[in-house]
């Protein structure tokens, strides 16, 4: 933060939840699976409007990145059971019950196609198709609410996979996602130079300069609120930060997609929550990072306080220590 910014921050109070996740260690088999099958997810997104990020995350989770027996022997990458209307080949596998019937496919491509049709042709999933295809959080929570899986942490696991492996980039155009994201960032910087409101003198504040966006304070930490179509590059340019610096404070990557209303910290978070916040009950769609953002504490500290390893995913209804 430069000297000018420090002198002109207008401090208010308030709190908004941000839905993000910090980067965790990568699993090689997951990355290999993504490299091998991302094109199928992108093709299905164009055809059925199911987010490619959701498709990949479900496939990784359901098939253990293609290593599960059902995926290897039956090309079933989404754990889809036979149900009454299945006319194709079948295989039997222990799941919630012993010796359950699962669909067998001729190829992985067939599995991806059938998964799309499975969601698109069933009325209980209809509401998901009303969501923006970039709203992977909404899709993840919706899949759990609609009963796709019985795991209480299912939505949270999907969100963690999407954010840890940047699968959201495939919702922006597949293989070109990272390039597109970079181009968008550069375009945003150029647009800001032309369109952003420059700090100006306020007669109501004895000549004090105002910043081009509001800044607030909660739990002793200074933050701002993301706008529609915002980015770390835009916020950094507005407030005199480096993009990398802001991303580090918020424990995400620089290209992480922001949603309107997300809270963006402008300084390092704390090691424990402020009193009287002692515990948090996990809600559907939350991650260790989103919880840490809500209370203004570091992700690493939250894991340490609860004696969890980096691969831990909180399940709905669990209680976590905050200090």
Automatic annotation (TrEMBL):
InterPro entries: Glycosyl_Hydrolase_73, LysM, LysM_dom_sf, MGlyc_endo_b_GlcNAc-like_dom. Keywords: Antimicrobial, Bacteriolytic enzyme, Glycosidase, Hydrolase. Residues 175-205 are annotated as: Disordered. SUPFAM superfamilies: LysM domain. It holds the Pfam family LysM. Residues 278-322 form the LysM domain. GO terms for biological process: defense response to bacterium; killing of cells of another organism. The keyword Repeat does not apply. The keyword Hydrolase applies. Residues 176-193 have a biased composition (Basic residues). GO terms for molecular function: amidase activity; hydrolase activity, acting on glycosyl bonds. It comes from the Bacteria. This is Peptidoglycan hydrolase. It comes from Tannerella forsythia.
């Amino acid at each position: 933060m430069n000297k000018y910014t420090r002198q002109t921050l207008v401090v208010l109070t308030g709190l908004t939840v941000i839905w993000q996740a910090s980067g965790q260690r990568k699993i090689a088999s997951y990355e290999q699976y993504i490299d091998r099958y991302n094109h199928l997810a992108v093709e299905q997104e164009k055809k059925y409007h199911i987010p490619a990020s959701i498709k990949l995350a479900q496939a990784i989770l359901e098939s253990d990145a293609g290593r599960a027996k059902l995926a290897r022997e039956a090309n079933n990458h989404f754990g889809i059971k036979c149900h009454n209307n299945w006319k194709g080949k079948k295989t039997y596998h222990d799941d919630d019950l012993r010796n359950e019937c699962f669909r067998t496919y001729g190829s992985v491509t067939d599995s991806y196609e059938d998964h799309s049709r499975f969601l698109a042709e069933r009325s209980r999933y209809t509401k998901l198709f009303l969501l923006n295809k970039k709203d992977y959080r909404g899709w993840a929570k919706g899949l759990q609410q609609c009963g796709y899986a019985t795991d209480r942490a299912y939505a949270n696991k999907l969100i963690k996979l999407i954010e840890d492996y940047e699968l959201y980039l495939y919702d922006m155009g597949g293989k070109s996602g990272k390039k597109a994201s970079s181009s968008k960032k550069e375009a945003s910087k150029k647009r800001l130079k032309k369109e952003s409101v420059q700090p100006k003198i306020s007669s109501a504040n004895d000549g004090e300069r105002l910043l081009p966006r509001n800044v607030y304070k909660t739990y002793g930490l200074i933050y701002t609120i993301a706008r529609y179509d915002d980015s770390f590059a835009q916020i950094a340019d507005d407030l005199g930060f480096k993009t990398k610096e802001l991303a580090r404070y918020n424990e995400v990557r620089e290209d992480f997609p922001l949603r309107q209303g997300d809270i963006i910290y402008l300084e390092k978070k704390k090691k424990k929550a402020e009193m009287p916040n002692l515990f948090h009950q996990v809600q559907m769609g939350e991650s260790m990072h989103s919880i840490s953002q809500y209370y203004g504490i570091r992700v690493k500290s939250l894991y340490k306080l609860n004696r969890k390893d980096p691969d831990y995913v909180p399940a709905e209804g669990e209680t976590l220590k905050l200090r």
